[in-house]
Amino acid sequence: MSVLIFIDQAEGHIKKASLEAMSYGAKVAAQLGTTAEGIVLGSVTEDLAALGKYGVKKIHHVNNPALDHFDAQIFTHAIAEGVKATGADVVIFSNNVDGKAIAPRLSAQLKAGLVSGAVALPDTSNGFVVKKNVFSGKAFANIAITTPVKIIALNPNSYKVETAEGSAEVAALNVNVEAPKVKVTAVNKVTGEIPLSEAEIVVSGGRGLKGPENWGFITDLAHVLGAATACSRPVADAHWRPHHEHVGQTGLAIAPNLYIAVGISGAIQHLAGVNRSKVIVVINKDPEAPFFKAADYGIVGDAFEVMPKIIEAAKKV
Ligand code: FAD
To answer: Where, by residue number, does FAD bind (predicted)?
Structure first.
């Protein structure tokens, strides 16, 4: 058996979610009595050999500029070729935006069983069984993958990054890169923002903030804490905030170390996207708001009175 991890990068930098995927993949490989290898697509600015500290022994680098921009179809094809070239039996992705786009396509292309949203190491004592969240995080399912090639997409922030001494062998891999079927004509970058999916701390606002003119409470606290900002779905639907900030069942699922929810009721569809956060703080004027049941810390109070005090206190820390 051999394990291949897709190491995701943006503008040459390896994403945090990939560090988790490498640590996880190295553990899976150890369980199977084999070594973990990684595959990187496109140009990178980082020292790939240094990724050995996350447990990967060899990095296959497809250094082709045609892969500098993410394209799910082309990436899937390149990784499928990588799987064949390396003879990998287990392929690991982060279940981030890129992983969600590639893993199902790869599964169809290789006729390989896929568990997306894995939250724990596979149980290999009797087959290959992977645990994942189901019913919007209300339950777990243990799913056996029985195909020769097995694919796991690991939920971000569900496996701790582990490091040890070591460097990886880096080898160039040439694969057939398909011609793109779509062309990127412009990229509008949001500058200065911490990407929500990678953030350790998230400050999030709901309809309780009454309107976009009051979002300074959220952005100011986020700025002081070095946090990303998020919102509930009605807030994005009302165009108070951009849609990429919407978290929940139909938005982004996140798992930061700290999630601060301000004026959000805590509907099940919202919780589905945030209930894997390590610590949840809820600020709501209604003591019966459902979010308090999921909270580690709660403040019953009017956000318009509470938030200025919290921001001031945070500035002093
Ligand atoms: P509200 O429900 O209006 O709650 C506002 C809260 O603010 C209340 O609890 C109130 O007590 C509090 N409040 C009011 N004033 C103040 C104040 N001055 N200070 C402090 N607190 C105050 N929602 C999501 O968020 N994400 C999703 O992905 C999502 N997907 C959905 C999918 C489906 C199929 C469906 C049907 C719904 C989905 N929803 C989703 C909507 C979800 O059901 C809720 O309607 C939504 O989360 C409520 O948003 P909210 O808490 O901001 O607003």
So the answer is: 207, 232-233, 263-270, 284
